Amino acid sequence: MEADNPVIAVFGPTAIGKTGIATELAKLLRARGEDPVAINCDSMQIYQGLELISGAATAREREQLEHRLLGFVPVNEEFTAGRFGERAREEIDSAIAAGRQPILVGGTGLYLRSALSDLDMRPPVDEALRAGVEAEIEQRGPEALHRELPLEVVERVHPNDRKRVARLTELIRSGIDPAPDHKGGGELWTAKFRHPTVLAGLVEDDGDLVAKIRERVDAMARAGAAAEAEAALQAGAVRTVRAAIGFDEFRSGDLERIVVLHRRYGRRQMTWMRRMEGVEVIDRTGISNLEVAARILELADVSRPGT
Asked: How far apart are the C-alpha atoms of 186 and 183, rounded to whole Å?
């Protein structure tokens, strides 16, 4: 792979078919002599022992396409987007240097952007302060802390977004200004890519996607997602892990709530996607994984030098 050939990134909500599309894309690339490798960009799939709840690629799917940065962080360890970005950029650069075609796959906008760009990420805070904020959220709820955020910050985050409310609270109490969002001149969605990149954003008819989400959630439950959550708790799961969609709900058996949460999160993912400069939106409603993969490859070919 030439160093200036495009990195391929596939972004979209839960159950839209990112892994299947990446697998089909890999087959197309191999058919013409290229060597693809997938790099995970999902904030929950980095955790070991959270494979079911996070929807990580299965062992069979990994046999079809090598996946990097899956399940490499213990569930009792916090792992920031900044640290992830460093690892992901190393993986991308190593793949390119080895002549391989990196395919980034994920649904976490911040993780994807930190892999593709050199972002100015805020540092981790003192562990004692973090523990205090976590205890306060447990006692008072994220909505209470959300109401106490400064006006210039409060509109950036939903009151129920426990993880982001906690992170903003931690930064402010540490005397660290949160990074500005895109409206405030921040580079989260506007920073330049480190390499030429084709960013394919997947969308689908709402009814079709909800049906897929429901089917996936049912399959997760049958495969033992509740037991996986219990095991993670016993292993000392950190706040980020316990905030995973379905972590509490699988344990209580509220599968319909998980469907609702995934769809709600999916809408936020679509909002993030539309903020990303240069995103190529692909509506995959009624279209097979292979057809979507072929469309992405066409976009990548157009972006190659000399075309």
From this structure: 7
Q: How far apart, in Å, are the Cα atoms of 114 and each of 110, 118, 120, 194?
A: 6, 6, 9, 10
Question: Could you tell me the residue ranges of all domains in the chain?
Answer: 7-121+192-303, 134-178
Place of tokens 């792992």: 79
Tokens matching residue 246: 């379905």
Query: Which one-letter amino acid corresponds to residue 300?
Result: A
- Helices 255-275, 109-116: axis angle to 10 degrees equals 40
Contacts of 200 (CB under 8 A, 6+ apart): 8, 9, 10, 11, 279, 280, 282, 295, 296, 299
Q: What's the pLDDT band for 167 if we cut at 50, 70, 90?
A: confident
- CA–CA separation, 276 vs 187, rounded Å? 10
pLDDT at 194 over 60: yes
pTM (two decimals): 0.81
If one looks up domain 7-121+192-303 in CATH, what number appears?
Answer: 3.40.50.300
Give CA–CA dist 49/231, Å, rounded. 8
Buried b or exposed e, range 91-103, using 16+ CB within 10 angstroms: bbeebbeeebbbb
